[in-house]
């Protein structure tokens, strides 16, 4: 049971970094949304360092490896 729960959590978190697209033949495929090694920074909301924004939804911003 614990293994299944852990696996579902990993899959749920990993699903946020994938997107669907249509290839040249019209088939729907999956690809990574961001390059490998990208980080995400939250500027608003609960993940922000500023406590005045905790009532808002966090806004993610991607830092690609060449921006670091």
How is this structure best described in words?
By secondary structure, the protein is an alpha+beta fold. It folds into two domains: about 1-35, no CATH class; about 35-68, no CATH class. The protein is built from one helix and four strands. The strands form two sheets. It has a two-stranded antiparallel ribbon. The protein has a two-stranded antiparallel sheet with strand order 3-4. Strand 1 and strand 2 (about 30) form a beta hairpin. The radius of gyration is 16 Å and the shape is extended. The model has no long low-confidence stretch (mean pLDDT about 75). This is Lipoprotein. Keywords: Signal.
Report helical residue fraction.
10-25%
Would you list the SSEs in sequence order as H and E?
A: HEEEE
Strand content: 25-35%
The total count of helices amounts to 1
Protein name: Lipoprotein
Organism: Conchiformibius steedae DSM 2580
Signal peptide: 1-24
Keywords: Signal
